[in-house]
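Let us practice reading a record.
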Amino acid sequence: MNNIGVLVFARAVKLLANITKLASYGFHFVFPDKRFTIPERAAPWWRSKRAAEAKVPRIIWQTNFTDKATLPVYLNYLFNRLMAPGFEYRFMITEARAAFIKENYPAEIFDAYSRLQVGAAQADFWRVLVLQKHGGVYMDIDGHAVWPLARIVKPEMDELYITTRRGEISNYFIASKPDNPHIGRIAKAILANIENESDKNIFELTGPGVFNQMLPRNEVPTACYRTTCNQGNFTNEYFQYIDKPQGKWTRQQHKIDVVRKREAAE
């Protein structure tokens, strides 16, 4: 289908998602403590014959501070499963992210990761490291594909990055093969920022700023967010952080040092 068809479908999804988000206020008013469990791992609903040929492994990666989700976050998860029935699903909470890095990377990298004091910065570094190790498609917990994921990330692709309304690369959607030299450069840049105890904000320290600095725009494939992956349609800050008193990272980074000083870490 052409981009016009995808955009029409994406608009319909956005409308449906926002209706469910509005209805969820009523649901959680009646059931304030109800939570749904996001699985650590879930097999594909069916296995495509072409999955083994794909350079980007058919895996969706997501993370959050907890696996206990409100209804909107859980519906977002289910929609991604619907859009990617041939993809395995893997999910890690805060503790699992640290365990993965400790098990799969040198002590230098784990020590640097451990100095990050805000969950969003940790998630930024982890997503790069997990894709470099295993490959797959990373999406933020509030992100959802707007078209079948296997048609967005085609089998012949090595990688795919998303561009925002302003044309900049974001990191809330990343598709990559394992051992990707571009992802490797980003990981090294994030490591250097941490080791230098940079006072940059999270956006520039570990987030999209690093992608825009390190990726050669004329060499990497990109796609507009409108036809690839949207954020915040099914859920919002209230439903994502309802069980986290500290709130969103945008507030946390102004209250504590994002990178713990080396003396304090030791």
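A brief commentary: The first helix runs from residue 3 to 30.
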